[in-house]
Amino acid sequence: MGFWSKLKERRSEKKEIKKHYKENKSTLTFSKEIKGLSKKYKKVNEEYFEDLENILIKTDMGIKMVLEITKNIRKKVKKDSSTEFIKELIAEEIYDAYDRGRYHAEPNLAKEGPTVFLIMGVNGVGKTTSIAKMANYYKNLGKKVLIVAGDTFRAGAVEQLEQWVTNRLTDIDLLKPDKPHQDPASVVFDGVKKAVEENYDMLLIDTAGRLQNKTNLMQELEKIFKIIKRTLPKAPHECFMVIDANTGQNGVVQAKSFSDVAPVTGIILTKMDSTSKGGIALCIKDLINIPVKFVGFGESVGDLKPFNLDDYVFELTSGFMEDDNEN
User: What class, spelled out in words, does domain 3-103+314-321 have in CATH?
Assistant: First the structure.
C-alpha cells in the first residue's frame, strides 16, 4: 500500500473534515495549480521543478521548507519521469516535512485538578472566538469549563466573551473583572481559586496581546504565571498563541515575538476556511518549531478541531490526488 492509500485510511474524521475543507481556498488554489502543472508538463524537467517551487512558495510554507521538499523529490525521480508519478511524492514530502519533528500535537491535560490554558494573540486574529469555541469543544467532551476574562486592556474584550457565553454557549461559566481595567493577575487569581474550589476540569484564561509594549506584556505574564503556580505548580498546561492563517508569514513573525516573552507551547490557527495560504502550518513548524494544536474554520461555535496532520495533508493535497467525489 502506497503513501496516499495509507493516509486515506488513517485520517480521523473523514466526512466532518471533508466538509470543513470543501470550500477551503488554500486547498482549491493549491490543487488547481498542481493539476495545471501536470497538464503543462508530461515529463519532469528543470522547468517543472522551478514552477513547482513557485507554487509551493505561494502557499506560504516558507522558502527553506520548499527547497527541502523539492530537493527530496528530485532525489526520488528519474529523468523524464511522469508528472503524474510525482503527485504522490509531493503529498508524501509535505507530510514528512512536518512530521520530522515527531510532534506531540495533542493538548496537554492535567492528570488531576483543573487543566489551565493561557490564550494569547494580537487583536483581530480570532482569539476571543477561539476561546469560546475551545470552551464548547471541551464542554462537549463532558468537561466542566470556566473562562476567565483576563484581557482587561483591550476595550470590549470582556464584553465580547460575555456575549459568546450568554448567547451562543451553554453550561459554560465566565469569570469577569470586578471593575474596568482591573489588574489581570488579580482576575486570574480569582479564576484559579474558583476553578479549584468548584472542581472545574478546564480553566481557559484570556490574556492581553499588546505586542507594542513587550516589557509590560512580559511583566504581566510573569505575574499571571506566579499566581497560577502558587496554587497549581504544574500549570499552565498550555500557552496557546492564536494566529490568523490569512496573515501568512506575518503570523509567524507575531508568534516569534510572543515566544520571546512567553513559553508558547502550541498554535491555534484560525480562519483556515478563508485563506489561500494553507502552507502556513508548515512554515510555523519550520521557522519557530511550535506545533499547531487547534485549527479553526468558520464562525460556528463548533468550528474548532484539534490539529491532525493526516487530515491536514490529505485535504491540502486531495484535490490533485483524486476526484472530488471520492472520500
Answer: mainly alpha
Burial string for 9-42 (b: 16+ CB within 10 Å, else e) reads eebeeeeebbebbeebbbbebbbebbeebeeebe
Is the distance from CB of 148 to CB of 206 less than 8 angstroms? yes
CA–CA distance, 131 with 304 (Å, rounded to integer): 10
Position of cell 486547498? 27
Q: What residue type is assigned to position 153 of the chain?
A: F
Q: Which of 327, 282, 242 is nearest to 62 (CA)?
A: 282
Three-class SS state of 293: strand
Cell numbers describing residue 287: 521557522
Check: CATH 1.10.287.1080 for 115-306?
Answer: no
- Give the C-alpha separation, 74 to 62, whole Å: 18
Query: What's residue 20's pLDDT?
Result: 52
pLDDT tens column, 126-150: 999 999 999 999 999 999 999 999 9
Q: Is the pLDDT of residue 193 over 90?
A: yes
> Of 78-82, 95-99, 248-252, which range is least confident?
78-82
- Alpha-carbon gap, residue 327 to 93, rounded angstroms: 22
What residue ranges do the domains of the chain occupy? Answer: 3-103+314-321, 115-306
Least confident of 247-251, 274-278, 291-295, 301-305: 274-278
Cell of 268: 491555534
